[in-house]
Give the backbone structure.
Amino acid sequence: MKRGFRNSWLAPFVVCFCVTSALAQEPDGGVSSLSASEHFAAGSAAFKIGDNRRALEAFQAAIAAGSNGPAVHYNVAVCYYRLGEYARAEEAFRVLGQDFPQMKSLADYNIGLALVRLDQNAAAREAFEFASLADDDQIADLANAMLASLPGTETVSSSDAWIRLVDFRFGSDDNVALSDPLSLPAGLTTDSPFTELQLYVGGPLQAASAWRFDASAFLVEYPDASGFDQAGIYLSARHEHRAGNWRVFVRPQYGRTNLNGDGFEQYFGLSLRVEQQFSSVRTTFGIELSHDLVDEIESQFSYIDGDRSVLALRADKSFDRSRLVLDYRIQEDDRIGAGVSADRHQYRVRFIKPLTSVWTGEFQHAYRVSDYDRLSTPRKESRHQTGVRATRDFSSGWQIALRYLYADNDSNDSAFSYRRNRVSFGASKVF
């Protein structure tokens, strides 16, 4: 039932019959009066025969008479759900999670079910993401199964399904640069409209396997700056090991890119990431170490040969209707060319929040300092980069996105100081 649980119409019945049967009893610690106990018993009896309106009235009477444990409040919320009053059910489950922290994960899962019925998939996805962090494996697996069934959902780590994504964008960039994070612009600047196409496929190597395979490809074309046309492929395998709230990921990876039709670079890398989840505060902390060996493909790009090392720290905090992600990265490049060998520190903050039932907004700001100490005249740069994004989900599985990015790079060598504006509109679909 856990991993095969995929259909949203069946989910409520599993929870209501399996979980509620365990809760449809007097709250632990007794009740304040016999009248409250009798109301609770009457509600339980009506619940069992499917008279949900009478059960709701009885449970509410029990609360008025003094019952105040989590079971009676949970059953009120379930009655609202069974009666089709999904907005009231969502609010009742939300209050349950706030008043009884031990019920938070179960409440989050049921909030997600109610929001699905209200066609609020973006908000439902967020509720299921909270529930997927539960210590209870059954709740976590049910939440992950619902995440995998929602339209427009990103890959869920415990899902056995293969994910396929296509993403198309077009827009304008007034300071075109290489999009590959392993490489750096050569000091040139130009503006151009652009089109991008990205494809992704990924999934477990076999059912319930700890190994996952990921492959992606991208194509970027600039009609007014063809020298920056890019294409690339990335392949990786990821092994996940879980121990309680700890997760360890090992990922070997390979990438290859072309620049203006010429073979530019290829790299081989290995990364190790360790995460710990703290469900009580809905926060995940992680640390990642990675190392890449970079080679040029054609001789004119020999200056990029070398390696790159990165240490990254991350904190991911979920709130009731939003999410905050903090990143800090230390990067060291040791390449043949001193102009592409920098020591870097970067701080980044992301804030994601549903705006409506179908629109989600994201704000992102990053500050990066780069030191080029191997140059005959050392160069230091500092860059502020701010971006906003609005996405809209459709029931068909399509998603549209509007993006805007602004960057301001300050350097002690004025030739490398610049500002950048990049705006795009795109559509994507997960299969």
